[in-house]
């Protein structure tokens, strides 16, 4: 248990655009333990999304080490990364990215059918509170409902790690709160490691760990001994 | 000004950023235009090349031949003759002495060296300058195995029979000093002869003073003022020449009468000479003379040349149109997609205050640039290479002069105009609605197309059997209706092109074997003199019976008649009369057509019945019946050489593909024409492996035989004339293949970019590249399947349309497409589809998940 679940070690991501070098992530170090609810905050352009993308195996780092549950993600081939995404990662985006041509349930099935130990798609839908809307197409659902489908899709894969990039960015206050509550509940009840990016500093009390990013570096790392349920936070 | 520049920058950058799309549009235009312009120019180029050559060699515009020969006083009479004032002036008039002779086994036509008209074009050596020299064709030297500087001896014994001198020539051996081309002969055919093998191999030209006689076989005339006209394509040329020849006829009658009297006067002398020399001069029968005034169209292969080239133009009317359709389709998909992609940007520009036209110009300009660049380069390529390749490939069988290019502005304007219309027009149509929408509505993201249940979902038996991803594919297919139809149309079009191209090739080539192996099975037609006497006839039969080369023969009466088509044109038909049509079996097989399909409704029932070998009236060929739109019991009007008309009732319709043939019993002929036909032809079937040359010379030298016409010559002539079509078809199939590839490439590309978000989502979820690709492939495969299926029908239809368009009156092509062509076309399309999918695999692999999912576009 000495090994942390997630290890970021001097990770750099440099974009080269002709002459110009953009250091999106410039030596980030942090660790996250299994089952932790982590919130990443920071100003726009700080490199949050870049970090999450590298963590999720959607992008490769320029240098440094990223280790997730003993797997060295930073040294994986593209095929291994795909496998990693397939079995270990669940992703939730700001813009839900549902397949328009599939019903809510089918969107979840789309993900679960390629996994080893998927959760039952319909049950997951019930869990996210969409029992009645399972057979609706995304265009027939509200933004919050769509985001819940996206979360159900990520959850049904039964991943080791759930990554959410501004999942409430497009939602109103109440709906946003519901979504975050859902994520927190998943973390607590299933013991799933959840990482959420947000701009909203008011949310930090709900996390076990808060990572502040600035200029591509970890600026500050807070650990909450007693996280607050999101329902009790007002902003 | 700066504003305009930035719009331009944007437009240029757009092209640079979407090179693949731009080039596939450009190539589409390139192909369409080069095909259209190239094929359109081919016929004028071919005609022009020959017209230039004719003018350079001063080819005759009119010639006069007479049964009694022509003299210097005839030339003087024409020179001093005054026609009506608007007639073109005769600039040159030259008499030519000639006869047929033998050079070893080769039959040649010998003529006096041209001085100003029909000038020879020297190839090697020089022209004769002294007596005892001659110039000839390379073909003769090759046949005789001699070269320039070697002597050649002319055996003139056949021609000598017709002269009062001891021989038509003063000397018989000539040194070959050069080889040349004559504008009188553009093909390798030299026509028939009544001596030797019955076929001329070559011409030999010798100085005029080598001849003993003082009369000419022909007078050649030129009218310089007609030179600027293209003799093939300018209808005025024909009109002017015809007017002159009509007026000359009157003079002809006078002069022929004078010549007749002269000859009678002379004969008294020659009779005495005949008694002295004991020569058999009774062959000079002095009947009333007649002038035949003939234009260029009676020259060997002169008309065939123009017909072949016109067939090219007909193809040009049909095929490139399909290319333009495909180009328009591609433009429509590409531009619709581009405008969709740029919705927000367009809205933004409009909000910034740019005019609709200013913004729209980018998209129309994009297509315009593709069509103009593609069009112009295609035009240049098309008119430079296509006519050139066709001319020389086809011309290998001929002796054609150097190729002459023509730049025809009308064709440039027409073909590039078509490209612009198809491509830029589609772009305008595609961007129309976006351009006219309000800025605000454009900037709002377009709601993604909502998912919908499809009909099949309500049929649980099928739906339940489908795997999850199959269900997704089915739903996608039916969801994007426009893409569905565009792909099906694109792929179908390509399959159709290949089917039609392959089918056309077969339809044309099949009839060679059908005609010459199954329908007309005889190897030669031996024509017999009208004046043959009984003893000669018996002798001829004996000779033929003894000849090992002849397997079987049948006597009949054959005559060329004309029949008038609806549009007033006259067409030739060879009418064969015999006591019993059944005895033609094995020579000309009369039967109903079973090959090639596409029998007209009108004849369908008839063709079910057995062929009636003893019909009342006339048996005509199917194509003739089609042209005249007649059936059994209807009448056809036949016209003989003296312009007399006869009506015959149709008794049967027989299979035939090349030229026109009709058959009658002798009884029917008697009923219709009023007199019994005399046998004038023997149809001959040769034994296997027989030497035809030998048989021909043996028969020709038998008394009473006039000529020996070989069927294989007909076959070769026909084969040569379809070479040009074949060339085009080969190019066409290649282009269809390229087009098919481009269309599929375009559609797959669009398919991928249109769904890049969906594909990126799949990748994020952890679908392997193969799985993600197969998500697209499954749909492509299904669309290809449907496209190919639809394409088969389109191809069948296109093929029959093409056949009716390019079929000429004297040919009947096969009317259906073979099964293996369908299979090949389908296989090719699938192959293209596969290789395009192979390429798109890399595109899918390269999809950047992060970029594609960044935000709502
Ligand atoms: N593909 C790319 N090419 C070049 N630079 C990039 C690319 N992606 C991101 N960047 C740059 O990297 C930096 C970090 O970007 P990132 O998206 O991680 O920021 P962020 O913290 O998520 O910001 P936000 O809160 O606005 O989402 C930014 O300066 C951005 O411009
Ligand atoms: Mg971000």
Description of the molecule:
- The complex is a heterodimer of chains A (235) and B (857).
- Chain A is of the alpha/beta class.
- Chain A contains six helices and ten strands.
- A six-stranded mixed β-sheet of chain A has the order 6-7-8-3-9-10, sandwiched between helices. A four-stranded antiparallel β-sheet of chain A has the order 2-1-4-5, with helices on one face.
- In chain A, a hairpin with a 2-residue loop joins strand 4 and strand 5 (71-72).
- In chain A, helix 4 crosses helix 5 (143-156).
- Chain A starts with 5 loop residues before the first strand and ends in a 12-residue tail after the last strand.
- With 857 residues, chain B is an alpha+beta fold.
- In chain B, 54% of the residues lie in helices and 15% in strands.
- Chain B contains 24 helices and 20 strands.
- In chain B, the strands form three sheets. In chain B, strands 3, 4, 5, 6, 7, 8 and 9 form a seven-stranded mixed β-sheet that branches. In chain B, strands 13-14-18-15-17-16 form a six-stranded mixed barrel. A four-stranded antiparallel β-sheet of chain B has the order 2-10-1-11.
- Chain B is elongated and about 110 Å long.
- Chain B starts with a helix and ends with a helix.
- Chain A binds chain B through residues 53, 56, 58-59, 79, 82-87, 89, 91, 93-95, 97-103, 106, 109-111, 113-114, 137-140, 153, 157, and chain B through 447-452, 468, 471-472, 475-476, 479, 757-758, 760-769, 771, 849-850, 853, 855-856.
- The site of adenosine-5'-triphosphate has 12 residues of chain A, from strand 1, strand 2 and helix 1.
Name the overall outline of chain B: elongated
Shape of chain A: globular
Low-confidence stretches of chain B: 271-285
Fraction in helix of chain A: 25-40%
End-to-end C-alpha gap of chain A:
37 Å
Report the uncertain regions of chain A. none
Q: What percentage of the residues of chain B does DSSP assign to strands (E)?
A: 15-25%
Which strand order do you get reading across the main beta sheet of chain A?
Answer: 6-7-8-3-9-10
Largest interface, C-beta within 8 A: A-B, 35 and 30 residues
The helicity of chain B comes to 40-55%
């Amino acid at each position: 248990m000495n090994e942390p679940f997630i290890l970021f070690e001097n990770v750099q991501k440099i974009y080269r655009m002709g002459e110009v070098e953009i250091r999106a992530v410039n030596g980030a170090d942090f660790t996250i333990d299994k089952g932790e609810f982590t919130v990443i905050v920071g100003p726009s352009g700080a490199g949050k999304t870049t970090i999450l993308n590298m963590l999720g195996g959607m992008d490769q780092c320029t240098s440094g080490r990223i280790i997730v549950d003993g797997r060295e993600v930073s040294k994986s081939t593209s095929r291994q990364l795909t496998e990693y995404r397939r079995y270990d990662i669940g992703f939730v985006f700001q813009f839900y990215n549902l397949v328009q041509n599939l019903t809510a349930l089918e969107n979840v099935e789309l993900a679960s059918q390629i996994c080893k130990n998927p959760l039952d798609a319909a049950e997951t839908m019930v869990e996210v509170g969409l029992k009645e809307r399972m057979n609706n197409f995304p265009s027939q659902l509200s933004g919050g409902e769509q985001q819940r489908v996206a979360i159900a899709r990520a959850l049904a894969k039964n991943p080791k790690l759930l990554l959410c990039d501004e999942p409430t960015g497009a939602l109103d206050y109440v709906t946003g709160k519901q979504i975050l509550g859902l994520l927190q509940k998943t973390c607590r009840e299933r013991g799933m490691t959840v990482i959420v990016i947000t701009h909203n500093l008011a949310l930090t009390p709900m996390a076990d760990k808060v990572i502040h990013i600035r200029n591509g570096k970890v600026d500050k790392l807070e650990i909450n001994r007693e996280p607050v349920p999101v329902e009790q936070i007002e902003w | 000004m700066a504003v305009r520049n930035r719009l331009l920058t944007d437009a240029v950058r757009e092209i640079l950023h979407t090179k693949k799309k731009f080039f596939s549009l450009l190539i589409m235009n390139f192909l369409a235009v080069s095909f259209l312009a190239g094929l359109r120019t081919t016929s004028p180029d071919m005609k022009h090349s020959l017209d230039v050559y004719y003018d350079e060699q001063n080819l005759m515009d009119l010639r006069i031949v007479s049964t009694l020969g022509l003299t210097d006083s005839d030339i003087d009479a024409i020179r001093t003759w005054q026609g009506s004032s608007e007639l073109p002036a005769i600039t040159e008039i030259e008499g030519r002495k000639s006869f047929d002779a033998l050079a070893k086994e080769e039959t040649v036509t010998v003529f006096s060296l041209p001085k100003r008209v029909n000038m020879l074009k020297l190839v090697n050596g020089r022209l004769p300058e002294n007596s005892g020299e001659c110039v000839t064709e390379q073909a003769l030297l090759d046949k005789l195995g001699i070269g320039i500087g070697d002597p050649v001896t002319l055996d003139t014994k056949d021609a000598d029979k017709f002269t009062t001198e001891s021989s038509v020539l003063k000397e018989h051996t000539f040194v070959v000093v050069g080889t040349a081309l004559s504008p009188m002969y553009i093909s390798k055919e030299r026509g028939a002869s009544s001596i030797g093998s019955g076929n001329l191999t070559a011409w030999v030209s010798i100085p005029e003073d080598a001849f003993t006689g003082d009369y000419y076989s022909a007078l050649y005339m030129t009218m310089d003022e007609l030179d600027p006209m293209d003799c093939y394509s300018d209808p005025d040329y024909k009109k002017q020449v015809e007017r002159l020849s009509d007026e000359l006829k009157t003079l002809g009658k006078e002069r022929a009468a004078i010549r007749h009297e002269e000859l009678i006067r002379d004969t008294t002398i020659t009779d005495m000479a005949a008694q002295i020399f004991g020569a058999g001069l009774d062959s000079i029968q002095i009947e009333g003379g007649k002038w035949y005034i003939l234009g260029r169209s009676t020259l060997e292969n002169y008309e065939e040349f123009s017909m072949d080239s016109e067939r090219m133009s007909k193809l040009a009317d049909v095929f490139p149109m399909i290319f333009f359709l495909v180009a328009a389709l591609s433009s429509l998909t590409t531009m619709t997609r581009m405008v969709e992609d740029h919705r927000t940007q367009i809205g933004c520009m409009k909000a910034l205050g740019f005019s609709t036209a200013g913004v729209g110009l980018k998209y129309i300009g994009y297509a315009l640039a593709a069509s103009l660049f593609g069009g112009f380069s295609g035009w240049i390529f098309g008119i430079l290479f296509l006519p050139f390749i066709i001319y020389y490939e086809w011309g290998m069988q001929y002796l054609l002069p150097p190729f002459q290019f023509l730049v025809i502005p009308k064709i440039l304007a027409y073909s590039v105009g078509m490209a612009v219309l198809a491509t830029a027009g589609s772009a305008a149509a595609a961007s129309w609605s976006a351009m006219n929408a309000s800025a605000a509505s454009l900037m709002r993201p377009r709601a993604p197309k909502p998912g919908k249940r499809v009909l099949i979902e309500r049929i649980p038996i099928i739906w339940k059997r489908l795997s999850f991803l199959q269900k997704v594919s089915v739903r996608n297919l039916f969801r994007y209706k426009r893409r569905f139809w565009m792909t099906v149309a694109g792929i179908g079009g390509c399959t159709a092109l290949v089917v039609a191209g392959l089918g056309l090739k077969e339809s044309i080539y099949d009839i060679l074997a059908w005609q010459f192996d199954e329908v007309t099975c005889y190897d030669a037609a031996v024509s017999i003199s009208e004046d043959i006497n009984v003893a000669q006839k018996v002798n001829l039969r004996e000779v033929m019976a003894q000849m090992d080369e002849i397997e079987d023969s049948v006597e009949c009466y054959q005559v060329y008649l004309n029949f008038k088509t609806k549009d007033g044109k006259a067409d030739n038909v060879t009418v064969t009369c015999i006591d019993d049509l059944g005895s033609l079996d094995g020579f000309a097989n009369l039967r109903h057509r079973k090959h090639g399909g596409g029998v007209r409704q009108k004849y369908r029932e008839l063709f079910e019945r057995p062929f009636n070998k003893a019909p009342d009236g006339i048996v005509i060929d199917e194509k003739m019946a089609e042209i005249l739109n007649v059936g059994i019991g209807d009448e056809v009007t036949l016209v003989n050489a003296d312009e007399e008309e006869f009506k015959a009732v149709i008794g049967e319709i027989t299979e035939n593909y090349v030229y026109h043939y009709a058959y009658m019993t002798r009884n029917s002929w008697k009923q219709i024409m009023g007199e019994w036909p005399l046998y004038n032809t023997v149809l001959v079937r040769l034994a296997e492996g027989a030497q035809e040359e030998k048989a021909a010379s043996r028969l020709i030298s038998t008394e009473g035989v006039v000529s020996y016409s070989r069927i294989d010559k007909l076959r070769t002539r026909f084969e040569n004339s379809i070479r040009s079509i074949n060339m085009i078809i080969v190019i066409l199939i290649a282009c269809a293949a390229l087009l098919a590839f481009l269309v599929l490439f375009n559609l797959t590309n669009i398919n991928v970019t249109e769904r890049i978000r969906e594909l990126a989502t799949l990748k994020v979820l952890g679908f392997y590249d193969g799985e993600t690709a197969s998500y697209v492939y499954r749909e492509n495969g299904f669309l290809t399947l449907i496209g190919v299926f639809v394409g088969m029908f389109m191809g069948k239809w296109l093929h029959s349309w093409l056949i009716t368009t390019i079929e000429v009156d004297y040919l009947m092509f096969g009317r259906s497409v073979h099964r293996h062509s369908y299979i090949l076309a389908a296989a090719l399309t699938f192959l293209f589809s596969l290789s395009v999918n192979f390429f798109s695999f890399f595109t899918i692999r390269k999809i950047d998940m992060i970029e594609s999912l960044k935000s709502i576009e």
